[in-house]
Specification:
There is one protein chain. The chain is an alpha/beta fold and about 325 residues long. It has two domains: about 5-110 and about 300-320, Rossmann fold; about 115-290, Rossmann fold, CATH 3.40.50.720. About 30% of the residues lie in helices and about 15% in strands. It is built from eleven helices and twelve strands. The chain has helices spanning about 15-25, 50-60, 70-75, 90-95, 115-130, 130-140, 165-175, 205-210, 230-235, 255-260, 305-320; strands spanning about 5-10, 30, 60-65, 80-85, 105, 155-160, 180-185, 195-200, 215, 240-245, 265-270, 290. β1 (about 5-10), α1 (about 15-25) and β2 form a beta-alpha-beta unit.
């Protein structure tokens, strides 16, 4: 007896080859017509759902969408059983109560981990070699010779040894750095092959005190919001720098700004901001010891085909009744 088709709505534009990969996940998959062009550029508000979108959502059993999809989208999908997010972070949708909706939610955790880890290594090299200062010198046509440091022998402190943290740990070790990391759920006797020292999350102060680079890789949850405040920054070495590729709310922005202005830490590289886009009047733009990037650490060319391939794998699992990958849990908050 033939099994029922699986109606799937994709709420953003995908290359044709990515759509083909999704359709090939199972003969049961039926891609619905959805006006994917309705997704505006970052920073612009999402438009209201039109009749065409509502028709597709009313039928959809599975939705592959973005963190920008408003909760009204899920209100319009009464038959929804599974939502696959395009990104690893779910905080915006979690804030709207998506994990209380009764359908399964999965993320792209790990899909962009390698590129984000490369970004972290890149900004650590920039800060260690003073390249952010050198670029300012170049724009001013100013010749300033200076000696710089090296990453070899430095300690890379990874706050959150998840998919991104693990990729970063491997790259940091390739630079002959020492790696110390925290992981949720680790106990005092825990160890990890990719870290020289693995600490429970409660021992964050110990990581901060010994790290030359503190890299924030944790998801934003009620537990991690404001995790790095003035007291935590005060534990860092004066020559240390902070790198944030998690969410802005994990770090107290005012406390970080004060520490950078007063040179109580050496520098920071920030790929996440509050708000986004970062307003032109933000003082972070002009700090000589800060690197500011527009939330692009995971924006690697080819991300959408990778994401589609991951979704296709999960969709095949769904069709066969197998456990899905990267299921978000209400108790964890991610």
């Amino acid at each position: 007896m033939a099994q029922a088709p699986i109606p799937v709505a994709v709420t953003f534009a995908l290359p044709s080859e990515a759509r083909t990969a999704i359709e090939a996940a199972s003969p049961r998959v039926r891609l619905l017509d959805y006006p994917a062009e309705r997704v505006p550029p970052d920073g612009a508000p999402m438009p209201a759902l039109g009749a065409e979108a509502r028709r597709a959502l009313a039928e959809a059993e599975v939705v592959f969408g973005t963190h920008r999809d408003a909760i009204a989208l899920f209100d319009a999908a009464p038959n929804l059983r599974w939502f696959q997010a395009l990104t690893a972070g779910l905080d915006e949708l979690i804030g709207q109560g998506i994990l209380e909706r009764g359908f399964t939610v999965t993320t792209m955790s790990g899909v962009g981990a390698g590129p984000i880890a490369e970004y972290c290594m890149g900004v650590m090299v920039m800060l260690e070699k003073g390249l952010h200062t050198t670029m300012r010198d170049q724009l001013a046509r100013r010749w300033e010779f200076r000696f710089t440091g090296e990453l070899r022998g430095k300690t890379c402190g990874i706050v959150g040894l998840g998919a991104i943290g693990r990729e970063l740990a491997r790259r940091a070790r390739a630079f002959d750095m020492r790696v110390v990391a925290t992981r949720r759920g680790a106990d005092a006797a825990a160890s990890d092959p990719d870290a020289d020292e693995l600490l429970p999350a409660r021992e964050l102060p110990r990581l901060l005190a010994q790290s030359d680079y503190v890299v924030i890789c944790v998801p934003l949850t009620a537990e991690t919001e404001g995790l790095i405040g003035a007291d935590e920054i005060a534990l860092m070495k004066p020559e240390a720098a902070l790198v944030n590729v998690a969410r802005a709310a994990v770090v107290d922005g005012a406390a970080l700004l004060a520490a950078l202005r007063e040179e109580r830490i050496a520098g920071a590289a920030l790929d996440v901001h509050d708000p986004e886009p970062l307003p032109p009047e933000s003082p972070f733009w002009e700090l000589p010891n800060a690197i500011v990037t527009p939330h692009r650490s995971g924006a690697v060319r080819g991300y959408f085909p990778r994401a589609a391939a991951f979704f296709a794998e999960n969709l095949g699992r769904y069709a066969r009744g197998e456990p899905l990958l990267n299921v978000a849990e209400r108790g964890r908050g991610y």
